[in-house]
């Protein structure tokens, strides 16, 4: 995150529509919010620390910066998630029986069909690349898994606190580091050639992927959202086994016997247990104790996270499609389909090694290399664009560049709407 990016936040009093997460504003909001949450957690590399490491640690955890992050955090949360309620229908008479019936029927319906996301991945031209990119999108959550849950553990709130601790202990491998879920996910990443360093792929994170992590931190950090947290927790614990079983198979089909799928296989087993624990030992007792007035909040958390997951799946697939088509378009020319530039071109000249950190545009743009060469990143592997190459960067698609082999001149033009 650079200071120059802050201008894209806009009015913090205006919540962003969840469907507009893949915008410059959405990306900036969720990067800032993600960093604000992460400053309250400890991250250390598993190697000797250099002087540069100490300086970076002191800078990231600087008390003044942490305080600033916490000061702006409520406004960022309202902007990021304030519009979610428009997608939630929780009206009508509810009691414990109808709540349980609704939640279970929603999960049952979800489990009746194969995962559309896994099917779409395996239908792409490069399923291995798509699976690697999916693991990268999961990394901001899974490499520090259950850290958001830890925010919900403190205080004194009866038997529910002890029941939640049982789930938390499972996530942390009962104190055995090798069985800790984040350890298992790191092993999966290494087994397919990815780095397991925390945020080594930071600039590849889609805004929608960060939104999933941020939502759990939000409902755990804000205690008035406790009952929303219970609804979101039930959705994720109940829906994961069906998805992870299919993802595990897809990984083995793509990478063979060398891939370590222990993380996903473990969740197929343990989250069936967690599904019952959350429903029977947390949700149901809460409704019995506090009354049906909390049910709309439980439903709000369940539906909000389900909607964010749907948005994230679509965003991810659109990014994969953009990355898959980038090399072909650079060779054959952009598919303008009769569209014309909407403004005068902006021309940039950059030296060798110059980086343009990943960002998104809010309109389709025509990108043309006039001189030199650069690498365009839309996925994990760059596509080299030579002088004369021209592509269309769709609105909302994450991309960055690096100049190679001397200076490079390129121009960017916004395209008129079709």
Task: Characterize this entry briefly.
The protein has 13 helices and six strands.
Number of helices: 13
* Overall pLDDT: 93
Which geometry do the CA atoms define? globular
What class do helices, strands and sheet pairing give?
Answer: alpha+beta
Task: Please explain how this structure is put together.
The chain has helices at residues 24-38, 51-60, 63-81, 96-111, 116-122, 127-142, 147-151, 159-171, 181-191, 207-221, 226-255, 262-290, 295-332, and strands spanning 346-350, 355-359, 365-377, 383-385, 390-393, 399-414. The protein has 418 residues and is α+β, with helices and mostly antiparallel strands. It is globular, with a radius of gyration of 22 Å. A hairpin with a 5-residue loop joins strand 3 (365-377) and strand 4.
Give the tags:
418 residues, alpha+beta, six-stranded antiparallel β-sheet, 54% helix, disordered N terminus
Question: What is the strand and helix layout of this fold?
Answer:
Layout: H1 24-38, H2 51-60, H3 63-81, H4 96-111, H5 116-122, H6 127-142, H7 147-151, H8 159-171, H9 181-191, H10 207-221, H11 226-255, H12 262-290, H13 295-332, E1 346-350, E2 355-359, E3 365-377, E4 383-385, E5 390-393, E6 399-414
Antiparallel strand pairs: 1-6, 2-6, 3-4, 3-5, 3-6
Helix pairs in contact: 1-3, 1-10, 4-11, 6-9, 6-10, 8-12, 9-12, 10-13, 11-12, 11-13
């Amino acid at each position: 995150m650079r200071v120059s990016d802050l201008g894209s936040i806009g009015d913090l009093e205006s919540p962003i529509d969840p469907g507009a997460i893949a915008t410059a504003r959405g990306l900036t909001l969720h990067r800032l919010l993600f960093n604000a949450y992460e400053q309250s957690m400890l991250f250390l590399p598993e190697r000797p620390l250099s002087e540069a490491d100490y300086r970076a640690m002191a800078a990231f955890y600087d008390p003044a910066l942490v305080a600033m992050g916490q000061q702006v955090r409520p406004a960022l949360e309202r902007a990021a998630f304030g519009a979610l309620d428009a997608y939630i229908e929780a009206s009508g008479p509810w009691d414990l029986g109808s709540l349980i019936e609704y939640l279970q029927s929603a999960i049952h319906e979800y489990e009746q069909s194969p995962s559309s996301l896994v099917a779409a991945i395996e239908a792409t031209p490069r399923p291995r690349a798509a699976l690697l990119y999916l693991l990268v999108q999961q990394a901001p959550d899974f490499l520090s898994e259950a850290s958001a849950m830890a925010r919900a553990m403190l205080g004194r709130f009866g038997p529910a606190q002890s029941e939640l601790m049982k789930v938390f202990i499972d996530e942390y491998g009962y104190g055995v580091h090798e069985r800790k879920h984040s350890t298992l996910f790191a092993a999966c990443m290494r087994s397919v050639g990815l780095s397991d360093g925390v945020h080594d792929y930071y600039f590849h994170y889609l805004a929608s992927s960060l939104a999933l992590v941020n939502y759990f931190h939000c409902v755990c950090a804000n205690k008035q959202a406790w009952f929303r947290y219970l609804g979101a927790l039930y959705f994720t614990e109940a829906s994961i086994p069906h998805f992870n079983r299919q993802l595990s198979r897809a990984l083995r089909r793509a990478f063979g016997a060398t891939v370590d799928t222990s993380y996903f296989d473990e969740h197929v087993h343990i989250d069936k247990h967690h599904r019952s624990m959350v429903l029977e030992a947390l949700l149901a007792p809460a409704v019995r104790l506090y009354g049906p007035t909390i049910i709309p909040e439980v439903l709000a958390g369940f539906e909000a996270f389900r909607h964010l997951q749907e948005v994230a799946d679509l965003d991810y697939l659109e990014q994969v499609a953009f990355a898959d088509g980038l090399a072909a378009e650079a060779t054959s020319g952009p598919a303008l389909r009769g569209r014309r530039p909407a403004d005068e071109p902006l021309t940039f000249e950059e030296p060798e090694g110059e980086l343009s950190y990943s960002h998104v545009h809010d309109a389709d743009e025509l990108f043309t290399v006039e001189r030199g060469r650069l690498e365009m990143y839309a996925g994990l592997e760059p596509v080299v664009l030579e002088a004369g190459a021209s592509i269309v960067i769709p609105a909302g698609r994450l991309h960055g560049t690096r100049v190679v082999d001397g200076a490079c001149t390129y121009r960017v033009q916004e395209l008129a709407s079709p």
